[in-house]
Design brief:
By secondary structure, the protein is mainly alpha-helical. The protein is built from nine helices and no strands. Helix 2 runs antiparallel to helix 3, helix 7 runs antiparallel to helix 8 and helix 8 packs antiparallel against helix 9.
Length: 179
């Protein structure tokens, strides 16, 4: 998930139009520009950078679409395989460690390593819906919605009612597959 909510930075709802985004950006930029905030230039520069970053992302339709998808589908940070902790097999315990490794890699921006870690977790424990979710999410964020849908289809065979998997599938279709 993104560190800062760009809509909050611009003080706008997610439903804001591109015109509203532009107007609000210019108004806030005028208010917080370092030239207008002498005596507190450092804070004004930080705020201006945040405003510019938020505006650039939200004013680009493709980037905004990807950002909205990411905000609606956050990475799952913690999960355990099914079963009682003391009675879990070696494979299930290793799958949980691979899951943690995948989350760490994704947090560090190393998506390729995260994908491999989540794939390893699923190889060890195929019925691990959180690993499937995170793997599918990364696929979508990397622009491979077909990969995401394949991962989700396999996961939904063993966990057909999992709300995270169902939501991610729905959001993938509506965001990346609709015309």
């Amino acid at each position: 998930m993104p560190e800062k909510n760009h809509y909050e930075i611009l003080r706008l709802p997610r439903s804001a139009s591109s015109e509203e985004i532009e107007l609000q950006y210019h108004e806030l930029l005028y208010q917080h520009h370092p030239d207008r905030n002498t005596g507190d230039e450092e804070k004004a520069v930080e705020r201006t950078i945040a405003l510019v970053t938020a505006y650039r992302l939200l004013s680009d339709p493709a980037q905004r679409k990807r950002y909205d998808f990411q905000v609606s589908n956050p990475l799952i940070l913690e999960a355990q395989t099914k079963g009682m902790k003391l009675l879990k097999s070696k494979e299930k315990k290793e799958a949980e460690l691979k899951f943690i490794e995948g989350v760490k890699f994704q947090g560090e921006g190393e998506s390729a390593k995260a994908v491999e870690a989540f794939k390893s977790a699923l190889k060890l424990e195929p019925d691990f819906p959180e690993a499937s979710y995170n793997l599918g999410l990364i696929g979508a964020l990397l622009g491979n919605s077909n990969f995401t849908l394949d991962v989700l289809q396999r996961a939904l065979k063993t966990s057909p009612e999992d709300p995270n998997l169902l939501r991610l599938r729905k959001n993938t279709f509506s965001t990346f597959m609709s015309v």
